[in-house]
Amino acid sequence: MAKDFSTREENYSQWYNDLVIRAGLAENSAVRGCMVIKPYGYAIWEKMQAALDKMFKDTGHSNAYFPLFIPKSFFSKEAAHVEGFAKECAVVTHYRLKNAEDGSGVVVDETARLEEELIIRPTSETIIWDTYKNWIQSYRDLPLLINQWANVVRWEMRTRLFLRTTEFLWQEGHTAHATKEEAVEEAFTILKVYTDFAEKWMALPVLTGKKSSNERFAGAIDTYCIEALMQDGKALQAGTSHFLGQNFAKVFDVKFLSKENKLDYVWATSWGVSTRLMGALVMAHSDDRGLVLPPKLAPIQVVIVPIYRKKDQLAQISVHANNIKDALTKKGISVKYDDRDTYKPGWKFSEYEFTGVPIRLAIGPRDLENGTIEVARRDTLEKEVLQMTDIENKVEHLLLQIQENIFQKALSFRDNNTFSVDSWEEFKDVIEHKGGFVLAYWDGTVETELAIKEETKATIRTIPFTHNPEEGKCIYSGKPSNQRVVFAKAY
RNA sequence: CGGGAUGUAGCGCAGCCCGGUAGCGCGCCACGUUCGGGACGUGGAGGCCGCGAGUUCGAAUCUCGCCAUCCCGACCA
């Protein structure tokens, strides 16, 4: 019922922006490119954090915190890493302000110039590896499994709420291992965590695989990723896990003595997901009536709206509403009883629909007479009137059903928008007219990938893990290829 | 950083060509009637018209400069 609100059909990116703002998730701030995450949006992020944090802990990781600032000299040590991030770093050059002599305000005090400039972290590999050097001497100190929740800054040309902001929130894991095998295994463990999180919590089906060298993280040997498909047919990288080899260990001189008393560099991984997941969540499930949230991440899972004329009616309804609220709360379900007198039921219905609350319960005079309650679900917009008896179990069950339905809907959307093509003409046609994931043979060279990107704007999103290679010919160069890779236009 | 557009009430906009001291919708406040899908009536509050110069008796309106934001490209999670 959201009037004056764009539809996906009319203008997908406008729809996304309107949705994020109108649903109270975030807004643009006074600082260019930076957003304010509003309470409702932040509540969703906190639920994501809580779920992921537990998964990290369950796989043996601990949290720690490293500085926001990184000495410039640290940053320039790993060549590929520098190349990858240098163009988008914010730099702190001074540490003091003073009043302008002409009284026009505050100016930088030029006499307070830092001897060594500080970079605001775009990612923390360098400061962390410089620190790990002191923490690791022996194989007994390994593996070192650390995560940090932090903000980072990447000076982007163009920003969009959640999808790409100058400052964003994320978690970054940084681990050190005695062997290459162990480090690779760690990268895969995390990839599995991310996959599970996306599918089970966000109800977002993802493809997993390896990045092409072109899309790989600067400084990594291999980058593994989860990729999701948005409703406009564009792909969104939702998380990455990197096998870093010994690159950072060598640069920061992190060595350990093995059981055999041999000195060797440690093997490393790093991995992260960011507030970008919020964008993925919105774009994957929502519709023209507003947000659709999977119950597991919804700040409010159930809202109860009373319908009444007179105060004494409200009092009667409230008795039932509060009983239901208590019963649901006992089951660990987050419930809001919205008995505000300042808004009408119809207004509330629209509001909770727009903000994606999975289940709405309405109790009115009719229900009081019949011992019933109206149950409306956000994902299908279906309404039914149920007996009030045992409602908490029905609601609990329905939440699970909604979670599953949202996932299945996203999954079938992806299936319906995944195409396998064998010719260049077909490839161009699908990328341009249909979008989605396009599976095609590729000769494995950067040149071909770049040429395809140049002509179609599509990139290799991921190279799927496969145990049974099949022979084919590269759609672009015609050269032999032993597996199909996933192409798409991406966010 | 290139191309395009826009800055007027909390939000969305009109007014600008053709200069005369600011208006509409939503929202907000009060009261009353309403309340099962965004209610209605009556009354009210709220604006250095992005900033700075200039032209003019007079500028939201004309001229010049600046700033900011948004959209489209190149770069990126």
Could you describe the 3D structure shown?
With about 500 residues, the protein is of the alpha+beta class. It has 14 helices and 27 strands. It has 3 domains: about 10-85 and about 120-285, Bira Bifunctional Protein, Domain 2 (BirA Bifunctional Protein, domain 2); about 300-400, Anticodon-binding domain (Rossmann fold, 3-Layer(aba) Sandwich), CATH 3.40.50; about 420-490, C-terminal domain of ProRS (Translation Initiation Factor IF3), CATH 3.30.110. It is about 35% helix and about 25% strand. Strand 14 and strand 15 form a beta hairpin. Helix 2 (about 40-60) packs across helix 6 (about 180-200). The longest helix has 26 residues, at about 390-415. It is globular. The two termini are about 30 Å apart. The model has no long low-confidence stretch (mean pLDDT about 95). The structure holds one RNA strand of 77 nucleotides.
Q: Would you kindly provide a brief summary of this structure?
A:
The protein has 491 residues and is α+β, with helices and mostly antiparallel strands. Helix content is 36%, strand content 27%.
